[in-house]
Amino acid sequence: VGVAVNGELYTALAEMEELLETESVLITNLEGYIRVQEDKLSLLKNKMDEYQREHADAASDITAYVSNPINAYLLTKRLTTDWRQVENLMEHDVGTDFLQNLTQYRNVLKFPSDEDLNGAAVALLRLQDTYQLDTSSVARGKLNGIQYSTEMSSDDCFELGRQSYVNNDYHHTVLWMNEAMSRMLEEPLNQTQTFTRADVLEYLAFSTYKEGNVESALVMTNELLQLLPNHERANGNKRFYEKEIAHQKEMKKMKGDD
Amino acid sequence: VGVAVNGELYTALAEMEELLETESVLITNLEGYIRVQEDKLSLLKNKMDEYQREHADAASDITAYVSNPINAYLLTKRLTTDWRQVENLMEHDVGTDFLQNLTQYRNVLKFPSDEDLNGAAVALLRLQDTYQLDTSSVARGKLNGIQYSTEMSSDDCFELGRQSYVNNDYHHTVLWMNEAMSRMLEEPLNQTQTFTRADVLEYLAFSTYKEGNVESALVMTNELLQLLPNHERANGNKRFYEKEIAHQKEMKKMKGDD
């Protein structure tokens, strides 16, 4: 946003548009994959319903059921020709074509690299600093009260924190890990969360220490250890922070002694 | 039903009860397979919905979308870390355990053989003959007006016809293939039909010829050839039936000349 000169900006925009095209192809392929899997499951569910209905009938009076020649024929057929059909359907991997597409796409479509992701994160954090935007507004996609983009998920915030951490930018790590934590609590139904509360606490504690607040770092580390008492690195950090705090007290006392 | 002596009957019943146990295990395994596949699909569908929603937003004004640093970050993230997660989920074959069970079951559970199926079919047809039951009543599971078992599907009837054919029992082949045909027309939503109208016509034509009605056999073969004009065996049979009819006419004429 005003950082790149015009030529660079246009290149960046053109690249972004290419990424949107990639996304469109991936979505179509995912739709196809889901569709064939659903069709297969719907056939199997029909078969299962049939089997369950008939089996419940049989279970209600087994002797009467099996001594009836029609049932005897139907049961034998269910476990021979019919069951072979069900097995074939179960074993038939209907998604293969769509999975093969995935491999092909890697060669022919434009995908962003991990460096591109880092660059996009840095550009966003630069914007945040330039306009002094508070973290939760950016996360809500609101800039100066205007809805500027979709809301970020806890995972989007976590990744911003992780990218900051990788860049040794502990200030933004703390801001975005805190945001990830509070958003996480608002997403109780999120089934694809890629991180845990413990992960956030570990990033937060270390970055808080790096930002100079060792007492807070110790509090967070203790909280993490309540979740995972055997977390090796956290136990090491706890001893380290405790030693640091003792050392700082010692220094203060010595200063007081001056 | 009165055919086997008591000892044999009990053995047969005990075996049938074992088959019901096999069926119960197969149903439970199929339920498990369907459940894990549905869970996987539900995760993928949530992801797809997210992608579609965001992508539709982008498509409505591409330049505005991609020149927004929040969107640029989110798009880049969707195509790096997020997409890797989707790909992993797509490629993860969640049903493996249940498919492995299928192989194991073949070794440890009692399954009926193809001979058992033939035996069960013959026993049912013997019952039909003994009590002179009409085919459509048996197919409806009704014996002497009493609902005696579940209704048979067109496929159950087709298989009875096929088993009769294998036993050179053309009388029952004709009865049950006709029943399969009429039930087939009542099951327009059947997605797992294992046979076609052409299959039934072929069995019917040949068995009708074997039963002595070559004119009907020719009519059915012509009907089959309307569906599949290049059906090799049917074309051969057509020539053969036509020759037979000509030959019979010749014989009649010669008799008339006497």
TrEMBL record, chains A, B:
Organism: Drosophila pseudoobscura pseudoobscura
Entire-sequence positions represented here: 16 to 273 of 549
Homology family: Belongs to the P4HA family.
Descriptive protein name: procollagen-proline 4-dioxygenase
Function in brief: Catalyzes the post-translational formation of 4-hydroxyproline in -Xaa-Pro-Gly- sequences in collagens and other proteins.
Source organism phylogeny: Eukaryota, Metazoa, Ecdysozoa, Arthropoda, Hexapoda
Localization of this protein: Endoplasmic reticulum lumen
Coiled coil: 34-61
